[in-house]
Amino acid sequence: MKPIRSIVIGTAGHIDHGKTALVRALTGVDTDRLPEEKRRGITIDLGFASMDVAGPDGSPLRISFVDVPGHALFIRNMLAGAGCVPAVMLVIAADEGVMPQTREHLAICEMLGMLDGLTVITKADLVDQEQLDLVQAQIRTFLKGTFLGGEGKRVVSASARSGIGLEIVRTELTRVAMRAKAAEQMRPMRLPIDRVFVKKGFGTVVTGTLLSGEIHAGQNLVLEPGGRSVRVRGLQTHGETEETARPGSRTAVNLSGVDTGDVSRGQMLVAAGDLPATELIDAEITLLDDAPALKHRARVHLHAFTSEVMASVSLYGNEAAKPGTKRLARLKLSQRIVLAPGDRFVLRQPLPAGTVGGGRVLDASPLAHSRRVATEKWLEQIADAGPERQVYLRVQRRSSEGIRIAELAREMGLMIEAVGDIAQDRVDAGELVMMSDALISRDAYFSSVEAIAGRLKIAGAQGLKRSILQSQSGLNAGMFDSVLERMVANGKVQVSGEVVTIAGAGSAVSGKDAQKLQAVSAAYRKAGLAAPSVKEAAQELRMSDAEIRRIITLLIREKTLVRMGSDDVFIHAEALRELSAKLGAMSGKTIDVAAFKTMTGLTRKHAIPLLELLDRERITRKQGDMRVIL
Q1: Which DSSP string do the residues of 522-564 spell out, in sequence order?
Q2: Taking the model in full, what pTM does it have?
Q3: pLDDT band per the 50, 70, 90 thresholds, residue 44
Q4: For 503, how many CA atoms within 13 A lie in the half-sphere containing its CB?
Q5: What structural domains and CATH numbers belong to the chain?
């Protein structure tokens, strides 16, 4: 009978506690396939097997197992297997009880966000009832407070050798399978690759657990990282040839367009354009209670799904993370991998080797020039936000630049259709505004309207050329065109050829004032960071002190100029934005006055007031003689 429902369950437990023997007794399949595994009698790499059972209602179920190594030396292989399964069968031998790898494996499962599973005491025929009762008591204490110690989570005894308890194990595994949630429908297709091999007559075959979406025979897919295009020649799920592989199934994919030497464990099959690989993520990390403190800038091994990369941890707040605490952090990965918000990972320290914690991806597309303080506040908001709130927050942080729905879907790791539906709800609720094919927040839209209207009011009846108005408004070309089109439709502005004017309004300032505003603005923009004093600007433009101060006041109202701290020195807003973007790339670093002068080419006369302005704007923070770039 063909299964209509399937689940993949991982094994976990200490070496030689009988994981492989139990899977063999349940399925009839020996998952130790390597010669060295046969010779040494231990599991080294991942093994796979499956069994068919019937649900309580008689419906067919297929339970597949990913059998993982128990030896500490092969923890990397264990993590590759545990990273893709929703449930676990924790195996503990009756003659030894809870051991070091039992503890580490359970901690890893919790860090990966598993919520269901079964605990099996193996080798029950090797001990008497008194010893079995003692081990059961120890295990229940050990599991207390974990996802395997909650209500409805059983601890059962069995023996792979004698067959004792195997039917009870099958029954409990069936219950786990029935409780399993359906795959996330909002997620695009992705299959993390855990095995690559050549099959004679077919060519390259990759296997993995299909996390979400479907794969179809004949479909064109992409291998990430690398962006390698491949075609699906054929499919097998649980050993049976299929036209379509569905989420939650063990899947083998026969690929054309790639050799086995160009594919490796850790890569992921995705649909083109859905999920790009990343090397920079913002995340919420949690340290184990018995882990050492994690220092700012520490280097760790990051394990996600079947991938393993090195990562440099930049902690928000800079102070070391204490054991048992949660912290926000930015992780710079040694190579690109596919990650999306909500994905779980495990962190291990290199020396002494051991699991120290794990985490959850909050953002796999950090903005390049966002200030660190602002990013931290944004991450605090998005950490517990649902999809609707996330859509709003991700659009809001783009300000007037906006973001297209397709890009937003990639950023969130969701289907375009799902994001489009959520976005439309937010538009209908008045939180977001749809501008052509891009979304902006309601506040950003009205700010954009004010930016255009403000420039036109200064220009008066003569208006401004479209290109000049766009430049002065600070909007990108696409958003400017969309906002202007809507303003025209609403009767707020009028366009005649290349000239834009306020509809039906007289000149907000005289023609002479408009010329003076443009002249003063141009003078300060040309000066850049080496801003002139008011007296110097007045002399250059042949204006009186009173007159130029009146014009500067107008420019400050329009946010063209920014006060440097006194009534004598001002700087053009564009020059300040360019400097902020340059410093944003140096976030977390320190700089002194001498280095700042070298970087900007300024003298001390201009550098000191500019640094003080940066402090007030929270772009830098003064610490003694140094500044920390935020």
Answers
A1: HHHHHHTTSPPBHHHHHHHHT--HHHHHHHHHHHHHTTSEEE-
A2: 0.77
A3: low
A4: 10
A5: 5-179 (3.40.50.300), 190-270 (2.40.30.10), 278-363 (2.40.30.10), 373-440 (1.10.10.10), 511-629 (1.10.10.10)
